[in-house]
Task: inverse folding
């Protein structure tokens, strides 16, 4: 016999009554909005259009450094000597940290210079400190891009300064942004810092604010990176977290910095207001109680080996249902980690996702006399 247990999903009536908006109607060349947990695309506009990523390139520069820090090949306290090439990036009218030749600057300060103030000089200095030359560092960037699955991207420098061979798409940048947040949660904290004070050599401290103005709006935005090139316009990779939910937006081709801010807010808010993501199970944490038969316990605890989420448009709430399904009750004995049930997510009658549930414990069979009594009781009364 197949048992179906309806799993808990609480749908507030206010969600059901939310007036769904077909799309956010933003004014931009290309954009994408994705749910962090499910990768569901909530909105897209020419997502594979080739763009110049400008300073959004610096996300990858930070990722390479975070990789090295994670693998203990680098430490935040390591100091890097500033070359003439890195210094000249502070003299050419670009955004910069204002480093000087032969300065010794810590990796942590250079990272803050890259992430918070978008310093091109910081990028070159860090690239040279890690790989010897910026050209060698770019090889690491492109190798990592391939590993992440960024199929329409090529990096030609560490900062994103104008170069026709430095290109990407909003789709790839969204993928890179998720990789950043997922793999380096502690280092990602730098991206929400609103100000960086650098105790520079031979002068007063320089205080610069984060170029991502969404961080100052008290919306829950905690990153990620702005960009601007004359040939591309203004761009932004952003992420907002509300309770346990996170969504990521990437857009390029805004007409102004003001438009970049207002239109990005509109895109993020549209995502939160018109869609929702439900957490069904946390990997190895959520406990499912599955009925047993001829066992020393009435229920066996179950778990999933992966996080289980699903994302829906709020207007489609009544189309979805979630069940735990199993053949049972589950007959003892049961081995630990044995597959005992599954989570089924349906859109009306269509199965859209099935995830196995495994036994979190070993359950022994009852002794022979009790087993016989239980079986006879079921045969006579139909009630085990």
Result:
């Amino acid at each position: 016999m197949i048992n179906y247990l309806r799993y808990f999903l609480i749908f507030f009536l206010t969600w059901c009554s939310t007036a769904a908006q077909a799309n956010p109607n933003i004014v931009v060349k290309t954009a994408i909005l994705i749910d962090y947990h499910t990768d569901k695309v909530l909105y897209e506009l020419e997502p594979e259009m080739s763009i110049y990523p400008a300073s959004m390139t610096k996300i990858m520069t930070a990722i390479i450094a975070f990789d090295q820090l994670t693998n203990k090949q680098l430490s935040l306290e390591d100091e890097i000597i500033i070359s003439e090439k890195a210094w000249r990036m502070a003299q050419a009218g670009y955004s910069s940290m204002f480093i000087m030749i032969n300065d010794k600057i810590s990796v942590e300060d250079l990272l803050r210079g890259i992430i918070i103030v978008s310093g091109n000089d910081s990028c070159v200095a860090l690239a040279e400190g890690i790989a010897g030359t910026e050209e060698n560092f770019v090889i690491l960037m492109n190798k990592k891009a391939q590993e992440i699955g960024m199929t329409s991207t090529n990096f030609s420098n560490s900062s994103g300064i104008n170069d026709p061979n430095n290109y990407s798409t909003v789709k790839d940048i969204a993928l890179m942004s998720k990789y950043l947040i997922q793999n380096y949660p502690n280092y990602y904290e730098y991206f929400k810092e609103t100000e960086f004070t650098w105790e520079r050599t031979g002068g007063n401290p320089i205080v610069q604010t984060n170029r991502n103005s969404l961080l100052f709006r008290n919306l829950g935005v905690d990153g990620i990176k702005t960009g601007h090139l004359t040939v591309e316009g203004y761009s932004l990779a952003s992420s907002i977290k509300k309770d346990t939910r996170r969504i990521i937006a990437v857009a390029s081709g805004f007409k102004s910095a003001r438009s970049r801010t207002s239109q990005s807010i509109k895109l993020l808010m549209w995502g939160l207001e018109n869609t929702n993501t439900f957490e069904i199970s946390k990997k190895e944490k959520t406990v499912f109680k599955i009925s047993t038969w001829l066992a020393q316990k009435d229920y066996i605890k179950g778990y999933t080996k992966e996080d289980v989420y699903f994302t829906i448009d709020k207007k489609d709430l009544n189309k979805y249902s979630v069940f735990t399904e199993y053949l049972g009750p589950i007959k003892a004995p049961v081995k630990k980690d044995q597959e005992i049930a599954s989570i089924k997510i349906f859109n009306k009658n269509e199965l859209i996702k099935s995830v196995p549930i495994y036994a979190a414990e070993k359950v022994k069979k009852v002794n022979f006399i009790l087993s016989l009594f239980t079986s006879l009781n079921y045969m006579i009364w139909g009630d085990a």
About this structure: The radius of gyration is 26 Å. The mean pLDDT is 89. The CA atoms of residues 114 and 122 lie 6 Å apart.
